[in-house]
Amino acid sequence: MASHSPSSHSATVDRPLVDRHQRTIKYLRISVTDRCDLRCRYCMSEAMTFLPRAKLLSLEEIAIIAERFIARGVTNIRLSGGEPLVRRDVGDLVKRLGGNLGRGLEELTMTTNGTRLAEHAPAMVDAGIRRVNVSMDSRDPERFRYITRHGDVAQVIGGIMAARDAGLAIKINMVALKGFNEDEIAPMLAWCRDEGFDLSLIETMPLGAIDEDRTDRFLPLTGVFRDLETRFRLERDAYKTGGPARYWNVDGTGTRLGLISPLTANFCEGCNRVRLTTEGKLYLCLGHDDQVDLKGALRDGGIAGLDEAIDAGLYAKPKRHDFRIGEGEGPAVARHMSVTGG
Question: Parallel, antiparallel, or unpaired for β 198-203 and 256-260?
Fold first, then answer.
């Protein structure tokens, strides 16, 4: 990817990113690929059809769009997928975006499944990434292989340890699944506390058609938290990452427990996020199909066209999502989480 200074595609902040509900957008999540080397059952069908490479944003285009968002006030960028580390030359994008740190961008992070973390962690640190989220719903080898359809949890844990050794702060993302991993939640929190990792628990979200009934797996975090309160000393923590999680300090240590509860504790009122897909569509909400085509706007109209499309998207951003899980309920939207990015 060609090297450009951030100013080559950025301008003075003249139109802050404020939606029609007066929420200021500070957080951009970018899906650099819809592909993944795992097939988690709550996220994907086993036989997925991925986007043709010709339809994807180039890494240069991703950088241009991201830098325009920075110029207009975004302070946090998270790279995600699919699995971001399966995209060739993603390290060049990380390095480019890292050059914006301290120049409008306050934090660059990544969500990964950890399978390739050991290989990439040192370069990520060199580029300015200081923390990563690792998706891991079980530490039991057989359960992990079942939920991912073929994954090796030892490989993921090895990547986590290598990333910590390289200097990255680690947060484990664990989707709470009824009848599957609920007995592992307290042990996972204890493991994170002992290893110095944070843990975020996430309610399963009705995104995309999958091969199972999400109703059977939905586990409300309200009950999970009540159980954890009997096992750990949990004190409310004002810590913020820019995302939707609410945090608690665990046993007076540095470990934090985060809860992401889109169904039992709606967090839309303070939403400060938008999401860019790998094919250049800007989604304003995970739970709605409202989107604008930034790839077409950039290619046809340059930075002026890009700004116009961003403004149109901000006006269309809904007040809240419409997630529902229940008997006979289909997914809120047809697209999978891997398309929009975590």
Answer: parallel
